[in-house]
């Protein structure tokens, strides 16, 4: 268990082009006035992923299997399976195009082969890595990419010479109004990713098999908190860098030349660093999104989640193929990514409610079920996201 790094895989999964784009837009348009939403998201992610990890350790099952076991009514069970397959399976296929496009944009800054060509090459690389079926190889690549991201975005931020006074002023004046609500939901949706709950439970279930459960839970909890905090710090650095370059400046950010537009503030070298970070972010998510979908869909359909199994490989391969195909068509990713992240924020309460229900099953979880405090914290997260989503919907009519 000591060698397991599933927490960092979760960090790798949520720090993708969607996170870089959303954080950049938040910083460019609203400065650091929305950091409160990021802090809330990091806290909620640590809490919910801890639940998913405890579920995996206690039951040795993935979240999809556990959710199905919780529901006895056949019709409700069918509806649940349909929700998982559509929201996680089909949804991740849509995300994959953004992941590959984001990574391709980063590589295209180094060698101008076109984002479509790079997306195709990256899709092949992701497929080859997943095809090996060797978890430790996949884990090592993803963890390395997380640290590359952390390093390059931090260096980029330092080179940008941040205005500490302006940053502190914005941090102390949070905003929540109709103009920022979509971006707030996007920040939440890009950090608290529903498919990561399925991925974490399945990974921990496999890595903790045969080990002492108490020790496994403690190690997962500590590592997840550390890794997710690193992911939150990366997001904050990206937001602050964009704030320095764009906030209160007459410049419009566009995903296709994001790093080029940072040139006046960051200089040539930092521009390359940002492109490298965007590539790392895209590749990590291009690997984890299909992997998470395969675990979720196979669990929902009652199919073996053996990484070398035909059905498991078929699910992630279809998602990569869809992602590559859409990316090669050249659709502009910026509006789609922001919309997808906001939609993710609206989907979250449904998955979180199911998770809370499962985590209170005393018969299945025993001493690892939720405490009263965990239930209160989880309920607050769900209520907050529902409140923000309702505010957004009502704002469309009033």
TrEMBL record:
Location(s), subcellular: Membrane
This protein's UniProt keywords: Membrane, Symport, Transmembrane, Transmembrane helix, Transport
Keyword Transmembrane: yes
Residue ranges crossing the lipid bilayer per the database entry: 7-28, 34-57, 78-95, 115-133, 140-160, 180-205, 226-251, 271-302, 314-331, 337-360, 372-391
Domain of life of the source: Bacteria
CC annotations in GO: plasma membrane
Main subcellular location: membrane
Example of a GO MF term: symporter activity
Bilayer topology annotation: Multi-pass membrane protein
GO biological processes: iron ion transmembrane transport
Name of the protein in question: Manganese transporter
